[in-house]
Design brief:
With about 325 residues, this protein is of the alpha/beta class. It is built from nine helices and 15 strands. Helix content is about 25%, strand content about 25%.
Length: about 325
Amino acid sequence: MKTLVIVEHNQQNVKPATLHALSAAKALNAPIDVIIIGEHCQNVVTSLQQFAGIQQVLVADNTVYAHQLAENTAALIATVAKEYDYILAASTTFGKNLLPRVAALLKIGMLSDVMTVVTPDTFTRPMYAGNVIATVKTLDKIKLLSIRTTAFPAATEKSATPASTVTLTTVIPNTQAVFEKEELTHSARPELTDARVVIAGGRGLKSAENFKLLESIADALGAAIGASRAAVDAGFAPNDYQVGQTGKVVAPDLYIAVGISGAIQHVAGMKDSKIVVAINNDPEAPIFQVADYEFVGDLFKILAELKNSFKKQ
């Protein structure tokens, strides 16, 4: 049996989510290869060669893969898939966009948000916004899995012997989509899915201007900023701040929910946080059902008190 892990990267660095998928691959107890698809991505290759457990690094470095668009990236993965029993990617926006296309091309099923490996063909995954953990067995010859990153630690172990590289010469142009532009939110704060502390705002903040009140507290705590879907839809925060079933899944040491009601879709994305602090003026808000500490009252007054407490320290 062999495992292939699809690497998510920005041409220079491996995205942390891939290291969690690599840990999941090790749980399968099968030889591991990784595939890097992009352009001018030698730094990514060199970085991954150092990780323990990787036998080969497959490299498709060509201008047609410059932006890792799902259409031709999925087609390339399908061409090498027959060599593997497992194909894994992190359950990120990248993975969620890519793996269903690979499944369709291979005419196989896909298991999303895998949380544990029970046996070589049996896995657990969440259902109903995380309220049910299902044990699922797949009979497909190739098992296609997206990995819930919060369920596996990031791989850190390095090897004294670098993995070998294999150059893939298959060039598949993208005839279905054209890359136009990319707009990223640049911040000195930690990446949302990797932060030890997250402070997230919801519709209770009432405006984009009020949402900025979270920034000074986030800076004092070294925290990332998140948002509920309602806050994102209202234009208070950018889409990449969204935490929840249709956003990012996080599991920080501390999660502070400000003005978030606690809809089941949001809770699905943060329920694994070690400590949850909820600030809301409604004592019946569902968020308090998952909170370890509750602040009931005017959130603006509470935020002001928090801000002042940091100034005094």
